[in-house]
Amino acid sequence: MGMESEKMTVNYPDGRRFLSASDHLQSNTKPHHRDSVVFGGRGMSLEETINASNDYYRLHQRAVIYKKPTPIQIVKVDYPQRSQAVIREAYFRQASTTDYNGVYRGYYLDFEAKETTNKASFPLKNFHQHQVNHFRNCLAQDGICFTIMRFTTLERYFLTPASLLIEYWGKQATGRKSIPLTTIQKTGYEIPAGFQPALNYLDAVDQLITTAKR
Amino acid sequence: MGMESEKMTVNYPDGRRFLSASDHLQSNTKPHHRDSVVFGGRGMSLEETINASNDYYRLHQRAVIYKKPTPIQIVKVDYPQRSQAVIREAYFRQASTTDYNGVYRGYYLDFEAKETTNKASFPLKNFHQHQVNHFRNCLAQDGICFTIMRFTTLERYFLTPASLLIEYWGKQATGRKSIPLTTIQKTGYEIPAGFQPALNYLDAVDQLITTAKR
């Protein structure tokens, strides 16, 4: 066949982990019992942690935030008799936006979540030009835009204003390749490890909104 | 094979028209020349009309609004050597939200767009329980929620507050199956046929925001 076929454990073209079908289903369903026994998202991927938190926020009417589906270009669909349609040929498309958006207390929230094993800085290569452009556009409409950065080795999470990413993105021309943790600590808001929700990032959003003096 | 294989012209399980790969690609790219020669979206599908309008709004920094990708459950991915990943088995999933959301002048916008060939009323069967639930959740967070209804035979478009859909959705138990056009005219805002953008619905959004007395 000249093809390598894999199930469940693959990566997207941009290196993100491809979640299994059950993970994808989970992200749009009610919280599982599992969510109630994790602490600070330990043992869960960053995406799982945020999805579980968003499920929690929706259930408790704190906010309505979803991860957007991965954009797919569909080419061929089969219709087996008496059963559901099967997509037989499709391709991953480049997203135009960030992964998460929604509404909270009348504010439009928009964010991207990334992680690093680095201990002293967050690599800019985790982000993409289209995400930076999208943040610029949303900020121009007074959206509340930010990144959630996870330092996996340190077990620390930060919410940083999108303006910080935009600033450092522009510094790449000068050879700058990452944002120092010290800068992130100063400009962002640390999100403490939580229980329910797994990552209680809305308190940091409240601080960001207050600081932005809207 | 016992399977019927089709390309490009199929329907989603809920009856929406399945757009071809090129349509899907188009929805996230810059406006085409084509957009500048249509009037009121004539000859375009409702989805194409709204996507073209959203492209226009983004390009002119009026608003940042996207159609969400169709949620897909991916089961199997092939990696042909030296070329891009091919999804070989995947399924359409039930969406949890509405199709469109974004940010406009600091407001979170959320809406669903539907059309009917009826002349005197808009059938409720065009909508789904999960959309009504999502509207309720977003309204509780002070989102600006609405539907865009197209009467294709009349060549008329209306923006109606989500509260109208929610009200009539609840009346289904009493046998009510549609929203009368007279009610839509009274409660909603007619969107005049446009040129650039193809459907200039933001003026109606301005009216909805003012009326909501936020």
Automatic annotation (TrEMBL), chains A, B:
Major location category of this protein: cytoplasm
Catalytic activity: Endonucleolytic cleavage at a junction such as a reciprocal single-stranded crossover between two homologous DNA duplexes (Holliday junction)
Main enzyme class: hydrolase
EC number of this enzyme: 3.1.21.10
Gene Ontology cellular component terms for the protein in this record: cytoplasm
One Pfam family in the UniProt entry: RecU
Keyword Disulfide bond: no
Molecular functions (GO terms): crossover junction DNA endonuclease activity; magnesium ion binding; nucleic acid binding
Cofactor binding description: Binds 1 Mg(2+) ion per subunit.
NCBIfam families in the record: PRK02234.1-5, recU
Stated name of the protein: Holliday junction resolvase RecU
Native source organism of the sequence: Lapidilactobacillus concavus DSM 17758
Gene transcribed to yield this protein: recU
